[in-house]
């Protein structure tokens, strides 16, 4: 795999992790939103990743084919968490039911902050990968000039 392959793979990871940070930010921003356009409280969303794979490689083993090589990461989907909303007793809240309970979003701030930190670290790791690949390519060019 050449420098361009490394850059393509790391670039796809940067894009995926950026979307993950955006989705997590939205979850945090809506942690107290009791009314959504879909009706009911906001529901946490999460990103589902999948590998970008090349076509399977030909194999010398008859009809079996060698496994495909990874070529980066892609966002397969952004899905809503179907966990039940939290019920909080707040009889004065405008969205309280007849018993005084409010359905609150199924967002856990500790989980969201952990996801944000993990996405941020993965983003940083891929930026480092890009910088190392760029540095290696520059050194190879420098060697060629001698």
Explain this structure.
- The protein has a two-stranded antiparallel ribbon. Strands 3-4 form a two-stranded antiparallel sheet.
- By secondary structure, the chain is α+β, with helices and mostly antiparallel strands.
- It contains two helices and four strands; from the N terminus they run αββββα.
- The relative contact order is 0.21.
- It has helices at 3-29, 109-145; strands spanning 45-53, 70-80, 86-89, 101-104.
- The protein has one domain (3-31, 45-80, 107-145).
- α1 packs antiparallel against α2.
Average pLDDT reading: 88
Helix content: 40-55%
| Rg calculated over all Cα atoms | 23 Å
Strand order of the largest sheet: 1-2
Low-confidence stretches: none
Q: Give the SSE order as H and E letters.
A: HEEEEH
What does the oligomeric state look like here?
single chain
Net shape: elongated
Instruction: Please count the helical segments.
Output: 2
Sketch the major β-sheet: 2 strands, antiparallel
Report strand %: 15-25%
Distance between the termini: 25 Å
Total domain count:
1
Number of strands: 4
What is the SS-derived class?
A: alpha+beta
What keywords describe this structure?
alpha+beta, 146 residues, two-stranded antiparallel sheet, 44% helix, 4 strands
Q: What's the arrangement of secondary structure elements?
A:
Blueprint: H1 3-29, E1 45-53, E2 70-80, E3 86-89, E4 101-104, H2 109-145
Antiparallel strand pairs: 1-2, 3-4
């Amino acid at each position: 795999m050449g420098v361009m392959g490394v850059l393509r793979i790391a670039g796809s990871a940067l894009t995926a992790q950026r979307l993950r940070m955006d989705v997590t930010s939205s979850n945090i921003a809506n942690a107290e939103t009791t009314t959504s356009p879909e009706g009911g409280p906001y529901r946490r969303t999460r990103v589902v990743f999948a590998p970008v794979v090349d076509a399977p490689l030909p194999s010398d083993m008859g009809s079996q084919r060698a496994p495909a090589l990874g070529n980066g990461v892609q966002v397969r989907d952004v899905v809503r968490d179907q966990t039940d909303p939290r019920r909080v007793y707040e009889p004065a809240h405008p969205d309280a039911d007849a018993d005084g309970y409010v359905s609150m979003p199924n967002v856990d701030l500790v989980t969201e902050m952990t996801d944000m930190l993990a996405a941020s670290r993965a983003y940083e790791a891929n930026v480092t990968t890009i910088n190392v690949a760029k540095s290696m390519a520059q050194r190879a060019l420098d060697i060629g000039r001698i």
